[in-house]
Write a structure and sequence with these properties.
The protein is an alpha+beta fold. The chain is built from 2 helices and 3 strands.
């Protein structure tokens, strides 16, 4: 009788530990999924802000024969592609860093840098 009780108690402890593990794992998975969704929503908001801001900048570049395309936003870095006259302009780096990058960083502080990808990523 003693051994049966001991085995029952051990089984219950094992079952309890297993249930606790599953509960903790599921809880952590849910937190992970929630944090991923929140990060995705934040990135979507940032991309929306980027698009609006680029649409405001674009007419100035177009008036000089150039243009600007959104490529991607990743790790707080905005990747754009300067096209048209801007793609071959000797002032491209100054336009990008001192003009476009400063304007975007001032408006969207989550962005730390703007990079021109040119023809490749």
């Amino acid at each position: 009788l003693y051994y049966k009780s001991l085995i029952t108690i051990l089984f219950l402890i094992h079952y309890f530990v297993l249930v606790c593990f599953i509960t903790i794992f599921t809880y952590n998975e849910n937190i992970s999924i929630i944090s991923m969704v929140m990060k995705l929503e934040k990135e979507t908001d940032i991309i929306e802000k980027i698009t609006i801001l680029l649409d405001k900048i674009r007419p100035y570049l177009i008036s000089d024969g150039g243009n600007l395309e959104f490529v991607k936003y990743e790790d707080n870095i905005l990747y754009v592609k300067l096209t048209g006259a801007c793609a071959n302009c000797s002032m491209m780096d100054i336009t990008l860093k001192d003009g476009i990058e400063q304007l975007i960083i001032n408006e969207i502080p989550e962005i730390s840098e703007v990079r021109n990808v040119g023809t490749n990523l």
